[in-house]
Each structure stands twice: as structure tokens, then as C-alpha cells.
């Protein structure tokens, strides 16, 4: 680490602390006004269109439609989840237990922003921070540093317009974006909010600063014989192709009941899926992995680009690839995370086998992240949820459009997904503003609630 990185970050932190001290005096009404203003100034069509264009052009990942849709949905959804929620002063009273809870800021948040979702992530994280009267410093991936600066400038102008310190939201400037600066930022901040690759998240947890990180994705969805296959295939297609699969939540594998497998494949083909031959599978594998690592040449790229890279002739109208597989683990890379418009197909006979496959696949990649199920059998749905080490189970939904919150489910809107201890994370929830406040508990005396030993231990005392 150079001394310049340490000094540069120290200056950013000092500016942020001064701004945060002012925010500490804000009322709930002021905080909510700022969050609403930030959201509106980002989702304005002229701004959202420019951001989506910049994100695709600078990163070379995903597509305009997906990034625009993320801005329109996640920013609005995040604001909806905040409206009417107390985050300033007294946020809860329990008269029976005589407990009062008071919300207070965490201080300065260091936010790491991935290049796969550079459009909505910095906005949501900033709104979450402001909701808790915090300041936030956004460190982008080098691949999207200009997009990050553009977005932050819109938010800073909004803060200024509404009478708040601009330095409540600070970008790491493009010329200073580096691993050294990000590392130093994580050390000097009060809390780290890390979204990105495994190495970055590990660095966040190793920084010595309290951190919320995310785990690797490798979502698996189970399809049984009780659902409409045409409808299910459409949902999977919409998720698999969204933003060319930049999302860690997209269906990397489908585990399908063997009696309906052929009909499922036909339904997927009707939705634009292309089932590769054994020879094409070999070509695709060589193109997608180099020395055991996913090739950047295929990550979040159009299907035509991937086909060209692999030397496969892709028929017109095909928008994603399907690869048949039987094995799981390092010797079977298609069972892992692919970050591309490629989904792997597995068969199962009895439902217990489907659960075993989900656990095996997510143990290889994506521990604790998520799985899904397309079934109308409530017993099977519950069995999957009870017996998999995943933090979220999406039922009859497009996985990547549902995991992080949708208008049609009850999940909190976010782009930061905790994966619990399974994924090396402290939280297994969707990370929101509620994770960016400290809470003081005020306790007054109440009448004794101590039970007798008989009430407490019951029959155990006589055994």
C-alpha cells in the first residue's frame, strides 16, 4: 500500500465525518425527503437511460434493457420498502417490557460496487446509508469507475439542492480507483458493505472493520411434474437472459424430474433455449474455462458472442444455452457458477434425489445463496426449504428477478444478498438500510418475571 492511498482515503473519511455530523441532526422527515429525492433523480428517464448506456459501454457486460430495468425496479422498490419506516430517534416501544429502541447512525460506510451491477447498486447503497443518517464512500470496480462517478454526481447535486451536505455521498475518483485505495477505505470506515467477487468479500471481512458481505451465487432450480412447463420455461428464460446473466441469482442449473425431462427441454427450446450436443459441450467448456477459471470473454455476453468464442453455430432466435450434465464438482465445471446465458440440466427420479443434487451443486459453488422450485406440491416445497443450506428459496418464480425483491413477492428489495455462515457471511438476509443503523435499548424496571423451577423445568426434574 502506498502512503498516497492512505492519505487519500484519510481525506475522504474526514470529509465524510464532517457531513455525517450534520446528518446526525436530521429529522425523520428530512431523511425520508432526501431518500425520495435521490431515487426520483435517478429513475427520471433521461438519467436512467444515460446511466444504463454508460454501464454497458464502460463495462462491456450485460445489456441496456436489463440495466434500465434494474434501475426502474430496484430503486423504486428500495424506496417503497423504506417509506413509513422509522430510522431516526425512537423506532420502537414495548410498554409491557418497558423497552424503548433508539436508532443511531453507524457513521461512515465503505461501499464496494461490482462491475456486474454498477447502475443500481451505488444508488441503493446510498439510499440505505442516508436512511440511517450515515455518510457513504463508494469504491467502484476499475471497469466501471466513470459510471460510478456519473451516478454519484447526480446524487450529490440532489443532496445540495435539498440542503444536505454533498459529502454524505463521496465517490472514489476514477484516477484513484485501485485495490490499495479500496483496502485502505475498508480499514478506515466504520462499516463495510461489500458486493462483488469472493476475493473482495474476503478482504472486507479481513479488514478489521465490521462488514456485511455476500457469498458466491450458483442458484439451482428444481422442476417437478406438477407445474405448467410452458409457463415454467418462460420464467427460467426471463431470468437466465436478464442482463445477459450478470446476476449471481440466475438459474445456473435446473434439476428436472426425469419423466418430464424431454417435455421440459422442448418447452425451453420453444423459449429460445439451445441444447448443445456432446461435441458442442466440449467446445463450450474449453471456451468458458481457462485453467479452471471462468473466462472474462464469455461473462455476461450475448449468446452470439459466446457461440463465436466456442466455435458453435447458434441457430437464429436462440438466446441461451442448455448443457446436459450428470456429475457435480471441479471435474464438471458446468455444475458451477457461470455468469453467462448458460444453464445446466440435471435429471432426478425421486424428490429426495433432487434435494441431494441441490445440496451437492451449492456445496461446490454458491453455499448459502439460493435455490428455487417450480412445483405445486407444498410438501415438496417445504422439504426443499428445510433440507438445503440456502438463505432463500424462490417458489415458481424467475430466480434472478425474485431473489433480491420483486413487485410480486415479499422479499426486501436490494442488490446485496447475505448467504449466512454457509457462505462465509454474518447475515443470511437481504441487506437493507436496517443493517446500517445502531440501536440503543433503553430498559426500565418491570415486575419480576422469574418462573418457579416447576414452571421452568417441568417433568425433567423427576427424570
H/I helix tally: 16
Helix and strand content put the structural class at: alpha/beta
**CATH class of the largest domain, please?**
Alpha Beta
CATH homology-level superfamily of the largest domain: Aldehyde Dehydrogenase, Chain A, domain 1
Using only C-alpha atoms, the radius of gyration works out to 24 Å
Overall domain count: 2
Could you give the distance between the termini? 63 Å
Specify the biggest β-sheet.
7 strands, parallel
CATH topology of the largest domain: Aldehyde Dehydrogenase, Chain A, domain 1
The pLDDT mean sits at: 96
| Uncertain spans | none
**Second CATH tier, the architecture of the largest domain:** 3-Layer(aba) Sandwich
Within the largest sheet, what's the order of strands? 10-13-14-9-8-15-16
- Kindly estimate the percentage of residues that lie in beta strands according to DSSP: 15-25%
- Quantity of strands, as a count: 17
Helix fraction? 40-55%
Shape, principal axes of CA atoms: globular
Protein name: Aldehyde dehydrogenase family protein
Pfam family, one: Aldedh
Keywords: Oxidoreductase
Domain Aldehyde dehydrogenase: 6-270
Amino acid at each position: 500500500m502506498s502512503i498516497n492511498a492512505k492519505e487519500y482515503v484519510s481525506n475522504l473519511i474526514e470529509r465524510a465525518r464532517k457531513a455525517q455530523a450534520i446528518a446526525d441532526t436530521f429529522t425523520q422527515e428530512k431523511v425520508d425527503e432526501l431518500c425520495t429525492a435521490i431515487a426520483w433523480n435517478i429513475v427520471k428517464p433521461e438519467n436512467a437511460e444515460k446511466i444504463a448506456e454508460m454501464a454497458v459501454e464502460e463495462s462491456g457486460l450485460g445489456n441496456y434493457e436489463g440495466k434500465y430495468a434494474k434501475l426502474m425496479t430496484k430503486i423504486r422498490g428500495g424506496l417503497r420498502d423504506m417509506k413509513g419506516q422509522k430510522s431516526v430517534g425512537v423506532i420502537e416501544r414495548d410498554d409491557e417490557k418497558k423497552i424503548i429502541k433508539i436508532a443511531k447512525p453507524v457513521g461512515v460506510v465503505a461501499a464496494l460496487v461490482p462491475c456486474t451491477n454498477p447502475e443500481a447498486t451505488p444508488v441503493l447503497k446510498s439510499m440505505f446509508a442516508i436512511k440511517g443518517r450515515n455518510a457513504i464512500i463508494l469504491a467502484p470496480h476499475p471497469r466501471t469507475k466513470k459510471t460510478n462517478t456519473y451516478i454519484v454526481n447526480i446524487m450529490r447535486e440532489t443532496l445540495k439542492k435539498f440542503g444536505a451536505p454533498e459529502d454524505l455521498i463521496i465517490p472514489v475518483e476514477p484516477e484513484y480507483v485501485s485495490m490499495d485505495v479500496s483496502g485502505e477505505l475498508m480499514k478506515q470506515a466504520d462499516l463495510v458493505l461489500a458486493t462483488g467477487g469472493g476475493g473482495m468479500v474476503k478482504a472486507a471481512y479481513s479488514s478489521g472493520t465490521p462488514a456485511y458481505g455476500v457469498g458466491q451465487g450458483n442458484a439451482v432450480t428444481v422442476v417437478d411434474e406438477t407445474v405448467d412447463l410452458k409457463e415454467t420455461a418462460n420464467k427460467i428464460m426471463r431470468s437466465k437472459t436478464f442482463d445477459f446473466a450478470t446476476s449471481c441469482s440466475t438459474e445456473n442449473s435446473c434439476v428436472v424430474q426425469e419423466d418430464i425431462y424431454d417435455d421440459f427441454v422442448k418447452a425451453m427450446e420453444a423459449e429460445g433455449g439451445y441444447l448443445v450436443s456432446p461435441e458442442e459441450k466440449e467446445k463450450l467448456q474449453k471456451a468458458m474455462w481457462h485453467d479452471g477459471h471462468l473466462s472474462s470473454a464469455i461473462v455476461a455476453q450475448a449468446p452470439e458472442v459466446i457461440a463465436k468464442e466456442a466455435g458453435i453455430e447458434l441457430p437464429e432466435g436462440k438466446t441461451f444455452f442448455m448443457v446436459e450434465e450428470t456429475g457435480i464438482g471441479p471435474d464438471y465445471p458446468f455444475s458451477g457458477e457461470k455468469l453467462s446465458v448458460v444453464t445446466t440440466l440435471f435429471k432426478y427420479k425421486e424428490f429426495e434425489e433432487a434435494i441431494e443434487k441441490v445440496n451437492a451443486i451449492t456445496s461446490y459453488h454458491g453455499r448459502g445463496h439460493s435455490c428455487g422450485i417450480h412445483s405445486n406440491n407444498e410438501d415438496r416445497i417445504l422439504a426443499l426449504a428445510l433440507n438445503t443450506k440456502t438463505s432463500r428459496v424462490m417458489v415458481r418464480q424467475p430466480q434472478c428477478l425474485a431473489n433480491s425483491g420483486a413487485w410480486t413477492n415479499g422479499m426486501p428489495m436490494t442488490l446485496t444478498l447475505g448467504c449466512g455462515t454457509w457462505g462465509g457471511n454474518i447475515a443470511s438476509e437481504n441487506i437493507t438500510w436496517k443493517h446500517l443503523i445502531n440501536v440503543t435499548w433503553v430498559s426500565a424496571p418491570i415486575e419480576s418475571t422469574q418462573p418457579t423451577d416447576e414452571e421452568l423445568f417441568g417433568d425433567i426434574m423427576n427424570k
